[in-house]
Amino acid sequence: MSNLPSPTTIETVRIGIQQRVLPDYRRAFFVCLAEQFGGRLSLFAGQPTAQEGIRPLATVPNAKLTLGVNLHLFHPSHPLYLCWQLGLLRWLGEWQPQVLIVEANPRYPATRLAVHWMHRRGGKVLGWGLGAPPLRGFLAPLRQAQRTDFLRSLDGVIAYSRRGAREYRWAGLPPERVFTAVNAVARRPTVPPPPKPATFGSEPKVLFVGRLQARKRVDLLLRACAELPARLQPQLAIVGDGPHRPALEELAARIYPKAHFLGDRRGPGLDEAFAWADLFVLPGTGGLAAQQAMAHGLPLIIAQGDGTQEDLVRPAVNGWLLPPDDLDALKRALVEALSDAARLRQMGQESFRIAVEEVNVEAMVAVFEQAISTLLSS
What we know:
The structure is a single chain. The protein is an alpha/beta fold. The chain has two domains: 15-187 and 360-377, Glycogen Phosphorylase B (Rossmann fold, 3-Layer(aba) Sandwich), CATH 3.40.50.2000; 205-357, 3-Layer(aba) Sandwich (Rossmann fold), CATH 3.40.50. It contains twelve helices and 15 strands. The strands form three sheets. The protein has a seven-stranded parallel β-sheet, with helices on both faces. Strands 12-11-10-13-14-15 form a six-stranded parallel β-sheet, sandwiched between helices.
């Protein structure tokens, strides 16, 4: 066993990043990170399960990408899910990173071996994850103990949200080892969106973007729109695809024919949808598209979920943050939003300001640089 060469500054450090899957919606972040580290970044990831519908990245400019083999036990949503990543230690031996960034998830046994590999050679390890929310079920005490043990083996953790950072601190990590990189998929916008008129015209326009699956609760959005007063009922564009699309199209045909399913859109096609809309609504969990909507100057209605939403929505400033699965709350927010076009335009301007100044890919990369520098200096 040999020690890793010790970097003197962040300008010379060699970085490795482990992910279970490298989704294509992370392209802008990894491209920006690779630009900052100029050929000193290598990524390791495997493939998703067939049921997940995740499009993996094939390449990242200015970075090396190594594909491993993921062996899945149960589905990723199952409480007993495990994923063994073949090839992880071989990649470490070839790349010899001085700082390794891993998913902060104890359900990947090979990651524990990677942490041990790094520490035996004098390297540093950062975790990156959503947080450490309370666990449920009869195995919760055992899973909690395993998670705490894994988190404390890391040299630091980067959280997707302020709530996630609090949870990591509650799990026992020292505050100075916990960093917050607010989740984003779009780079800092450089050109303001075209101004929109102070009125909606014939009808307001509402947009949803995301994978069409049960947890996104598009059915709730269809029902809420159908129960609005006739004068407020919007044109509803639903961008995305997924296993629930046929059922949602059938529901829309019955209760809300003003809904239009546009399928999967990316690049200019997605930009066109954002430019068309007056309001972005995400009634279920997830929400990376919300930050894209903000970069296009749209106000938001979003249900609370994993904590990342709280960093995007400033209630009464750029949108509405709702309890999950609450039809009445969603209807009230839609009525308030669609009753005052001028106010909605002001909220959209505030969304754009937040996307420029606070929540963007460049801001995420800056936190990663800060965390790496902190580890190196320690």
